[in-house]
Amino acid sequence: MDLSKHFIKLGCAPINWTNDDLPELGGELTYQQCLSEMALAGFEGSEIGNKYPTDVATLAYECDIRNMQICNQWFSCEFTTKPEEETLKRFETLTNFLYALGARVVGVCETGVTIQGDITKKMFDDAPILTDEQFHKIAKGLNKLGQMAKNKGMKIGYHYHMGTGVQSMEEFEKLMSLIDPDLVGVLFDTGHATFAGEDAVEVLRTYIDRVVHIHLKDVRSDVLKRVKEEKLSFLQAVKEGIYTVPGDGDMVDWDNIFKIISQSNYSGWIVIEAEQDPAKANPLEYAKKARRFITEKTGL
User: Fold this and answer.
1) What is one Pfam family matched by this protein (predicted)?
2) Do the strands 8-12 and 45-47 form a parallel or antiparallel pair, or are they unpaired?
């Protein structure tokens, strides 16, 4: 599968080094180490983590000396629980920051009623179920964010995510049906689709024409089995190693994922995002493993 002729850049997420939801995972590691090791492993870009400087000049300097680019940052929407205006204001601040750094995509997710950060909540039993009213509220807000981004020459991609009320494809399709496709794209994530019990290949096949950003990670089937049997939370699942990099797990059909991308007009970033405990899974080693795997499979 040759992707070398596509306008695709490869990036890494700092969550593989230091975890935003579980600060104790990689708490001792600096953002400079994250950026340096990403570059050392052969990646061109990084998403932004909670340790990264909020000053444009500082972060731009640290990226420039490593030949790295910023490509995206997670944005939490709270349309279900707070006044719409609050989310819109925070989004404006973030897009100003990202645009100045050269990023043109924002991954957005509704987290008003999420359980993703609550270690006491069972992943499947306690996941929120959104009402029709909440779906409409989120869609209305997302269309506004999409228009704000478009006015700046940017795009947003909705990130379906475990524990948020938009994790199954049924939930995702419901939300997507309410949204203007010209304003809101899709952040495709192999790991969250697989964890939710969906076929990542089918999800990509359905939404490839709306995909504006890609996260690649695999899932370990033995850990997923335990998560279900022992009724673990999302954070417990991460600690136990539910996710890993492409080339290491056993649940994602990578050949068909890359085939769909190669047959599409997708251009943009492909980001390795496989949050693990860095004490158990050396981030540089796993970044290099993922980089080798992608080269072997795609020529990138």
Assistant:
1) AP_endonuc_2
2) parallel
